[in-house]
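Structure ticket #2291
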Amino acid sequence: MRIAVIGAGRMGTIRAEDLAADGRVDDIVILNRNAERAAALAASVGGTSLPWPEDPGDPTQWPEADGYSVTTATDTHAELIAALAEHRRPLLIEKPLAMSLEETDALVAMAGKTGMQIGFQRRFDAGIRGVKERIESGELGVLYSLTFTAHDIAPGTAEFIAGSGGTFKDMLVHDLDLARWLSDSEIATVYATGTVRHHADYAAADDYDVVAVHLTMASGVPILISGTRHDPVGHDIRLEAFGSEDSVTAGLNHRTPIHPADGDLPTAADPYRGFMDRFRAAFTAETSAFVDFVLGIRENPCPPEASRAALAAAIACEISAREGRPVAMSEVE
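Resolution: structure written out below.
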């Protein structure tokens, strides 16, 4: 099987490493605007590198492959997806698909030519999948509520903040996706608040370093999300699911970056140092699922409609935080 990895940055490196470790992939091709970086990554994973196309929008200038992993910046997605979709082979696209609903809709329409898997790696975290399985099996009984914690270890640079798309679109989009996926229900209303408590660069970008979100799902299940751009102890991503028969958590273990006041939990002994540390195994499982998808032995585990729904919810959060009111998803749709 031949997989082409488009981009040789952090995510390109992750995808290439995981593809190289998957015994079903025997040919990895790396393309990057910086030819030296592409060659270095290809050499590290036993693959090959090819020159970046003179016209990336021309489908004929991209190599033939069984699947394509696109790891370049969001603003390149439209051109690359339009070209690669013509090859009618599955695509793995990092989130977000696009920054606007209009452009997202146009890219989702292209999925009709090919399969398009969105990179929401938290769906592949072992603990989070365990929560999903317990909900689906009925082990929790009637699902009462979900509570998410999403705390970054360190704030971004001023340059990153200015181009990130904002805290709701960049960070909480993962939680908004999990809200739908775990509850098996659409988001009905959103109420969000945001403030700048400590890091002035977020205020300069008209963004927030602390946010809170209350979702009401169409099923009636309430979901609470706490988000911060800075956690001095470590990278803290966890969730709790509460039901009529049981309660279960994911992400609470000896590495969870929090200090219990009663001392009963051995947490923060070796705290997570970033999202890659927290979710490296999930990325591997996600890449393996993509190979399954390419082989046709499983359905698309994260279709592009998921990206569209999460983006719409993030936009609703922005409106709610700005206007100080609940926002129905029907307003955004």
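Closing remark: The mean pLDDT is 96.
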